[in-house]
Amino acid sequence: MAEEGQQHPLKIYWIMWISLFVLSGMSYATDFMNDGTLRQFLILTFMFLKAGGIVWIFMHMGWERLALKVAILGPPVAILVLIWLMSLEGTYIEDTRLEYYGESTFEPQEPVHH
Amino acid sequence: MSEAVLDSGAEAPGKKGLVEDWSRDKQVFGVPWGKAMMWIFLLSDTFIFSCFLVGYMSVRTATTDPWPNPSEVFALQAFGFNVPLLLIALMTFILITSSGTMALAVNMGYRKDRNKTFWLMVATALLGASFVGMQAFEWSKLISEGVRPWENPFGAAQFGSAFFMITGFHGMHVSAGVIYLLVVAFRVKKGYYEKQGYEIVEITGLYWHFVDLVWVFIFAFFYLW
Lengths: 114, 225
Fold this sequence. Notes:
The complex is a heterodimer.
Chain A: H1 10-29, H2 37-58, H3 66-73, H4 79-101
Chain B: H1 2-9, H2 14-23, H3 33-62, H4 70-73, E1 76-78, E2 81-83, H5 86-110, H6 114-144, H7 158-190, H8 199-224
Antiparallel strand pairs in B: 1-2
Helix pairs in contact in B: 3-7, 3-8, 5-6, 5-8, 6-7, 7-8
């Protein structure tokens, strides 16, 4: 607690703020692309850049000591295991449903617009 | 002398500092306790939102019904065109704007500029409130079109469950954040923190930025994917 909190030049915040606007604009632009691997790659890239900027600059994690960084950013890595297991499970359930109930007969309506 | 050697470890950088911060018989985190506790709360909240998003991934993978196209479901008419995700994009930009005003409020707080801190926090709260208002509009629109947690006319029923649970929980966080911001803002204005310092503004900011952070993931996975 030696220094008086997290004080940084305003310029850093302005740059981060503008970058977030640009990245959000590009995220939104992916919605006009055709579905595919490239689109998914871009969605994830812009997402991680935005998330990283928010945590590192706006939440000041970049200036914190390693003890805090490890304690807060380390545990969420476990979520990757959950994602892996649940995607296996999801695929398995889908296969089971297809095998026992067959293809879906659902007839979707077109969304209405106001 | 030996004390000086011990104390020098407290500020060691990198891995040496990591080991010493955790192993020395002292406070682990060199930050005010309120900030450490906020970070730990946000860590637990990270797991809650992750469970929602992973659950959403799981049911979306498992269903055999077609998944509604969010780009069309959330489209709005503007200037005679169907603009995809119009309101959602607007909500995203509002939340980012509020993140910026919050970051500036933290900075002004440490400069002890109470007036600017107050107004920046009020601006952040107002942007947050308008976000919740737009979400209420979005919910009413979808409900009027027949989207329910258990069924919807556009595709898989799980779409409604995931939508209401995830955006509802996020909206609740934004609403709580608006109240939290206003309470702290008025205390700042009154000079409540003059003696103890303005870490509280940074702690409030951590919560607010986290709410924005969660929206980044919801926007990518629920609305764009």
